[in-house]
Design a protein that fits this description.
Number of helices: 12
Distance between the termini: 31 Å
Bound molecules: (2S)-amino(hydroxy)ethanoic acid, manganese (II) ion
Number of strands: 17
């Protein structure tokens, strides 16, 4: 039997090398999409794929780094695996990276085993999975699934002072061509993504592998509040139109909606700002950046209308006007049952304990169902922490995840059509 044991030291060294591409002295790891360190890290990923023996390694028009491990029957629908290597601001060094370095390692193991797959295996480092100032995550996976639109490219980024399309072009990409990257529906045999759990479930259950059941949908909201500026000392409380207080009530309304959800929901307001920002002036304008998530389509479908109504009503009672913009529209996605079963069998085949878990985090995989059956493999996050410098996954857990990924790819390869 060929040795398909991941090289743990090689994995650890790869994650360590990737973590050196950071854009600030900020605590943690910051490598945001379109930043200089991110540009440099794409070259590292490109080389890592070439060194693993992948062929046709290239960057597509949307900025995805793509490599291919040829199979014996290229006429068959290919397999795909991958993830992302951009980070949040002050984040960790495993979110996404484990899935890209792990996918490349799985492809290397299969190639060096001398037992080629029947199908081609496509390995991808997707561009810009994380939330960004354009309000649109999963840029690269949206492009290959036909979900990137001209309207998305026209979105203006405040810090960039440019549209998403212009920013992509400035990064050496071809935004117009990115709109034409859509792969045909059903063109993949299956897509598998290895990822850290980013939550506490596996550690709490003492399980080594997560078989993901569903990926939460995400709706992101930019709400603007327009009140009236006044002297903070002379204007009586009852006569004020304080934009910041209206925004504060909106923040609590966002929290309240998730806490009352019947099945599953979380919500976060990650940022609030008010102007003019002086001690002694009643704020005349404010904005909040918020998101709501759920694996329950019914709740997620209804929450936008409920929140819009509640936020506008609370603000109107203060004589404050509101303008709400919903930015992300990523519905909840269930993984494919037959793929889940294959992952569970692969985990058992390597003696790994496993548990079926939902993903509260969003992933590129959530955009892939249009192309074919999908599955996700989780490895534990220490303390359930992620998107912070404390994010940590052991090399042993990473290697075990790569082992299960490798076995899953081999098992899926041998299956004829995979039922949806
Ligand atoms: O935000 C998320 O859920 C993912 O980690 N990008
Ligand atoms: Mn991620
Ligand atoms: Mn993330």
């Amino acid at each position: 039997m060929p040795d398909l044991t991941p090289d743990a030291a090689h994995l650890a060294a790869g994650l360590e090398a990737l973590s050196t591409f950071v854009q600030s002295a900020q605590p943690g790891w910051t490598r945001q999409v379109f930043s200089e360190p991110y540009l440099a890290s794409r070259e590292w990923t490109f080389r890592r794929m070439v060194e693993a023996g992948l062929s046709d390694v290239h960057q597509d028009a949307a900025g995805n780094i793509v490599g291919r491990l040829p199979g014996q029957h290229p006429e068959l629908k290919p397999l795909m695996t991958g993830s992302h290597t951009d980070t949040v601001w002050g984040g960790g060094r495993f979110d996404g990276m484990v899935g890209v370095v792990g996918a490349i390692e799985a492809a290397r193991l299969i190639r060096e085993s001398g037992r080629p797959l029947a199908r081609d295996l496509i390995v991808v480092d997707f561009l810009g999975e994380e939330a960004n100032e354009f309000g649109l995550s999963c840029l690269g996976s949206r492009a290959i699934t036909g979900e990137l639109t001209p309207g998305h490219l026209d979105r203006l980024g405040e810090a960039a002072g440019a549209t998403l399309g212009a920013t992509m072009a400035g990064f050496g990409l071809d935004p117009d061509q990115a709109l034409r990257l859509a792969q045909p529906a059903g063109s993949l045999h299956a897509y598998i993504e290895l990822h850290i759990e980013q939550g506490p479930l596996l550690e709490a259950a003492g399980k080594e592998i997560g078989v993901v059941t569903a990926i939460a949908g995400i709706e992101r909201l930019l709400a603007a509040f327009q009140g009236r500026g006044d002297h903070a000392g002379t204007m009586p409380m009852a006569d004020r139109h304080d934009a910041l207080l209206a925004a504060a009530e909106a923040v609590l309304a966002v929290e309240h909606e998730a806490c009352c959800a019947p099945v599953h929901a979380v919500s976060t307001t990650g940022r609030i700002e008010a102007l003019p920002g002086a001690f002694n002036v009643v704020p005349d304008s404010a904005r909040i950046w918020a998101e709501v998530r759920s694996i329950d389509p019914a709740w997620l479908g209804g929450v936008k209308g409920r929140l819009a109504q509640r936020i506008a009503g609370l603000a109107a009672a203060r004589g404050v006007e509101t303008a709400l913009e919903w930015l992300n529209d990523q519905p909840p996605v269930a993984t494919t049952p037959a793929v889940r079963e294959t992952i569970a069998q692969a985990a058992e085949a390597v003696g790994a304990s496993w548990e079926a878990v939902p993903s509260g985090a969003g992933h590129d995989a959530a955009h892939l169902p249009r192309l074919g059956p999908i599955g996700m493999i989780f490895v534990p996050s220490q303390g359930g922490r992620s998107h912070v410098p404390e994010e940590f996954t052991t090399t042993e857990d990473t290697a075990r995840g790569v082992q299960v990924l490798t076995q899953t790819l081999i098992a899926l390869d041998a299956q004829p059509a995979i039922p949806a």
